[in-house]
Specification:
two-stranded antiparallel sheet; single chain; Rossmann fold; 387 residues
Length: 387
């Protein structure tokens, strides 16, 4: 009997020690988890500021950031039956140039890429007419369908893979308008934080750009938002693509794709994704109204209006970025005029100067000059360095 009691005491002692050890491990893990915030925590704010959403790069007193916090809290709360939006219907659409990424230096990504392709990297592949178009682009130029058609002509003959590779390589070039900025580094940190915040709260993110679709996909794929936007969630201007060897055939029904075939750009142009085309593309490719929209110019207003249309079955909001920061950026827009105009249209204005606590990485600063003129003459093959 004594031996049995002794054995029982030993077993109980072992169990007590095991429980104590388990408690120590749990306590240590909890402390470690508290010290190292999760990806979701860091996306909504750093540990230092208590994990407040949109506080790492947004100003503490930003009314726009607060409206976004309030909106997300409202529509993701299943207890709020009047405003709750199921995850499958939480669709947010973003313009790219000037909304997600830098547009206020000399020109934006796709235009500078066209200039460099024609005048610096591959002048042997393009006509003198296209070189002249590239050389004559100046600040204030019109990024319309005419220019987009010239972009399409410049890349004729490139396979989709070759074009992607060139877009990627171009993105590694340094801009002259900023110190320590490659073209691929131009994403606004507050907007990257916002994309991640929405993604972490069950929103599906689409990028709806006036830039050509393959270009936009490649820019996004090499950006800080690449984990949150899949290629099939990128909608852009469309250039014609055909199967190599069948470029001149009117109908793609006359041939079939075989193993090893290549898809090439023909130089043809299909449609510019601006103004009403943005809302039409959203309907065609998404098939339902977004509940959040973000833009920065008049060419985005159709997308914004389509989102906040009174027939939207869910609460919806639209935000416009105003480029009014001329210290950390090259913005020259007048906040008072722009904010009044956007507010009158039902959009929530966002000031880069006042709402963005930080725009770019610390080492990126505006250069001494924003614009560097490129000179080209069809009488010489020597082309000045444009990058």
């Amino acid at each position: 009997m004594k031996d049995r009691k002794k054995i029982l005491n030993i077993v109980i002692g072992i169990l007590v020690l095991a429980i104590v050890a388990a408690c120590v491990v749990i306590t240590m893990n909890a402390a470690q988890n508290k010290a190292v915030p999760s990806a979701a925590d860091t996306s909504q704010g750093s540990a230092e500021n208590g994990g407040t959403p949109l506080s790492a790069y947004w100003a503490a007193d930003s009314a726009a950031a607060q409206s976004l916090r309030d909106y997300v809290s409202k529509v993701t709360d299943p207890e709020n039956t009047a405003s709750f939006i199921p995850e499958k219907d939480r669709i947010a659409v973003f313009d790219m140039d000037g909304t997600l990424t830098c547009e206020t230096y000399y020109t934006y990504y796709d235009t500078m890429m066209f200039i460099e392709y024609c005048l610096v990297d591959h002048p042997e592949r393009v006509s003198d007419e296209l070189k002249q178009v590239a050389a004559e682009i100046r600040p204030g130029y019109l990024a319309d369908e005419t220019l987009a058609r010239n972009f399409a002509k410049a890349y004729a003959g490139l396979t989709v893979e070759e074009f992607r590779d060139y877009i990627t390589e171009f993105g590694k070039k340094e801009t002259q308008s900023f110190n320590n900025m490659r073209y691929t580094d131009g994403f606004y940190l507050p907007m990257v934080e916002l994309v991640r915040y929405l993604y972490d709260n069950g929103f599906t993110i689409y990028v709806i750009s006036g830039t050509e679709r393959t270009t936009t996909r490649t820019i996004v794929a090499n950006s800080p938002i690449s984990d949150y936007v899949t290629p099939n969630h990128v909608i852009g201007t469309d250039f014609e693509v055909k199967q190599k060897g069948h470029e001149e055939e009117a109908s793609n029904l006359n041939f079939k794709y075989e193993n090893g075939d290549e898809l090439v750009f023909t130089g043809g142009f299909i449609q510019k994704n601006l103004n009403a085309n943005k809302s039409i593309y959203i309907e065609r490719e998404i098939g339902q109204r977004p509940v959040l929209a973000f833009g920065n110019s008049g060419s985005d207003t159709s997308m914004m209006n389509y989102t906040i249309d009174s027939r939207n079955p869910y609460p919806a909001q639209a935000y416009m970025i105003v480029a009014d920061d001329n210290v950390r950026e090259w913005g020259t827009q007048d906040w008072a005029a722009k904010s009044e105009d956007y507010s009158s249209k039902g959009f929530i204005p966002v000031s880069m100067k006042n709402d963005f606590a930080q725009i770019y990485a610390e080492e990126i600063t505006p250069a001494a000059e924003q614009y560097h003129e490129i000179v080209w003459s069809d009488e010489t093959e020597e082309v000045p360095d444009a990058a």
